[in-house]
Amino acid sequence: MADAGETESQAAVRKEFALERYRYILQQIHAVNENVHRFLAIYQALATALVGAAIVLFVSYRKWGVAPSTARGGVIGLLVLATVVAAFTCMLIVVGALAWLDYRNEECDITDEVVGLGFRARPRSGNLLRWYETYVLLFILVSVATMWVLAGVFLLPAVR
Q: Which residues of 20-43 are buried (b: 16+ CB within 10 A; e: fewer)?
């Protein structure tokens, strides 16, 4: 870690800086991990509200005097909005996973330099199935597909 011409004081400052950077990286990794849960909670709340609104529209459109074509358009519009929310949530999760990968690689760079080569293993793409983000993304994609299928099979044909 220390160059030949580096003084003991410079080496100490360099180690202290590396330690502070390491702490910051660990803090960022923790924040990225927590964000996935926040994004999932936001998606669940918005998707529930939007699909609930679509069902209320379906159940009440006749009583409200709304034309069937307008009701169908409203249901589709609410599902499109739920899909946009899902796409945005997926994008945030993917960006968070990429940031996590970047922080982990930086963590490995620091530990390689300060502690020794290979102290911390770098992330591998083969571990994708062990990441909970993978399953959160799958849940979101399956739930959106299920919303559209159920609306296409049950709600939209019944609006006449």
A: eebeebeebbeebeebbeebbeeb
Distance (Å, whole) CA 25 – CA 106: 8
Distance between CA atoms of residues 59 and 122, nearest Å: 53
Computed on alpha carbons and rounded to an integer, the radius of gyration of the chain in Å comes to: 25
Residue type, 6: E
| One-letter amino acid of 45 | A
**Is the Cβ–Cβ distance between 140 and 89 less than 8 Å?**
yes
Instruction: Write the CB contacts of 90 (distance below 8 Å, at least 6 apart in sequence).
Output: 137, 140, 141
Residue in 23, 147, 135, 2 with CA at minimum distance from that of residue 81: 147
Q: What is the pLDDT of residues 61-112, one digit of tens each?
A: 999 999 999 999 999 999 999 999 999 999 999 999 999 999 999 999 999 9
CA 93, CA 96: separation in Å to the nearest integer? Answer: 5
How many C-beta neighbours within 10 Å does residue 74 have? 17
Q: Which residue has the tokens 């994609």?
A: 141
